[in-house]
């Protein structure tokens, strides 16, 4: 699983961001953000259906945005593709889904497990 070490949050989390006016849909926004935040060029969604929906509060470091909704998708990419650290992150790395780093949001492991189950169902 590709995670970024979020500069403001100071934790490892999935890549992602905000929907922009130029995005035609949520899946399009997810792909754009994945490419921007990781540098991956060959990334594709497993399905256009969300695999995760999560609302959480944000720390003061995030500024005026105090609550956040994550709409998550499962994407596939090659671990041999070169990753790039964006301005919003301090690091970007691949992790085994059974060996996530310690400094992740508390609910991330259960969200990952659920998303993997959704992806397996979609892939048949």
Automatic annotation (TrEMBL):
Every Nudix hydrolase domain range: 1-117
CDD domains: NUDIX_Hydrolase
Protein name per its UniProtKB record: Nudix hydrolase domain-containing protein
UniProt xrefs under SUPFAM superfamilies: Nudix
Superkingdom of the organism of origin: Bacteria
InterPro entries the record matches: NUDIX_hydrolase-like_dom_sf (IPR015797), NUDIX_hydrolase_dom (IPR000086)
């Amino acid at each position: 699983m590709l995670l970024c070490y979020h500069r403001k949050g100071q934790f490892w989390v999935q890549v992602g961001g905000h929907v922009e006016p130029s995005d035609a849909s949520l899946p399009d926004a997810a792909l754009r953000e994945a490419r921007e935040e990781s540098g991956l060029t060959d990334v594709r969604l497993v399905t256009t259906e969300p695999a995760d929906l999560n609302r959480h509060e944000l720390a003061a470091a995030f500024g005026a945005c105090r609550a956040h909704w994550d709409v998550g998708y499962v994407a596939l990419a090659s671990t041999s593709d070169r990753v790039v650290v964006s301005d919003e992150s301090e690091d970007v790395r691949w992790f085994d889904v059974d060996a996530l780093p310690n400094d992740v949001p508390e609910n991330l492991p259960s969200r990952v497990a659920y998303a993997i189950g959704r992806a397996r169902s979609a892939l048949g």
